[in-house]
Amino acid sequence: MARYRAPVELDPAAYDAITASRAVIEALADDVRPHYGVSTGFGALATKHIAPEQRVQLQRSLVRSHAASSGAEIDAEVVRATMLLRLSTMATGRTGVRPIVAETYTALLNAGITPIVGEYGSLGCSGDLAPLAHCALAVMGEGDVRVAGELLPASAALRAAGIEPVVLHEKEGLALINGTDGMLGMLSLAITDLQALLTTADLAAALSVEGLAGTDRVFAEDLQQLRPHPGQAHSAANMRAVLKGSGTIAAHASNGFTRVQDAYSLRCAPQVHGAARDTVEHTTMVAKRELASAIDNPVVTLDGRLESNGNFHGAPVGYALDFLAIVSADVASMSERRTDRFLDSNRNGGLNAFLAGDPGVDSGHMIAQYTQAGIVSELKRLAAPASVDSIPTSAMQEDHVSMGWSAGLKLRRSIDGLSRVLAIELLTAARGIEMRGETPSPVSAAVIDSIRERVPGAGPDRYLAPDIAASVELVQSGALLAAARSVTDLH
What we know:
By secondary structure, the chain is mainly alpha-helical. It has helices at residues 12-28, 55-66, 76-91, 99-110, 129-139, 154-161, 172-177, 181-211, 221-225, 230-243, 247-255, 264-267, 269-291, 315-343, 366-382, 404-436, 442-452, 465-476, 479-485; strands spanning 70-73, 113-115, 118-120, 144-147, 150-153, 299-300, 306-307. It folds into two domains: 12-179, Fumarase/aspartase (N-terminal domain) (Fumarase C, Chain B, domain 1, Orthogonal Bundle); 186-485, Up-down Bundle (Fumarase C, Chain A, domain 2), CATH 1.20.200.
């Protein structure tokens, strides 16, 4: 839904849960005792009593003041994921909002109305406050949004879609901004992307083994079982499938394998890619738990109490996002090392220096590896965890925060970088296999054919950036994986 605009529909059972929790809030509205978010201020101002006639203004002011983001506009898929996950929490019936609020979020998502959110504004605690506030502001008919890429005032976009802006009542403004939805949305998207990219990394590594005349014997199933990490077995199986039927590999049986051992970047690819897979599996478990959560403060309990809590703290998600940035950097680092081996005539098994058509006159892929190296260097910086930092806010009431939103943003950049590094490796491996001149495996042949539909083969040097851009698009779109899967089953 966040990425491909699938329609959203509330489960009818959610209406009963939402209505029941709203009744709890309305019963507390006239209580003489203070109830946080219902009849009090917020954060460090929680001790201030708010008179009934000021409570609509209280919720409106909360959203307006917290919609304070700044910086570059966040991708629409992140904003849509954020809105969908806040709607999911509303549907649990634990937030105390009225059904009309959930219905309006559903209507905005289905109309393709995406609030504008800046990159700065969330510390990943007390919820992704500023990003969620911008979403709530749009539901109120205020702020700016995009519809089909066009920047519009929210009021105009809602009017064109026939959606009535919501006037927020007691607790509703608070309920709309107090969740880990932004960082969880980024985690969910990242897991999806990395699952595809790690299979792409297996594919790239196998093509590099073939192009560098390496051996597949180290990927044998019985050797992998001696260290029974599931991700390692998974990646090794992928690499065996890609290399099956390779003329280069088959030649070792008659000609012998001239090296005692392949370098680590070839031989240990299943161990590194497998560890990455197992890390993604761990973060998937975290995401599933978070998706099953009802995060709000205060929260309406199952037995009808309104209770303060700390479930909005983003540490579980922030840690997971940081783990994945480490994974992304290390897989990219290994990919760059394989590319570098292709370009060094002392290590590439008899291929031209830099895979150039006429070395000296031509530079081949020399600078493509520079591009990889620059990306990998940045990915290593992005792997430094955001979640170890904390800056106190709200007059020391919020004195420890997760920085999970920041972890999510840097992970998104890291994943983009990983896809580019793998694209350059695949471009280089395809060229190396062709220059070696032996029969490629059926999978490698299908992948090379897919690349050659967009990128010419070896020859005199040409403008290289468009070749790289085409390979990146083939990786990011999944076209190269699809080509490989047309021949064999890769996971």
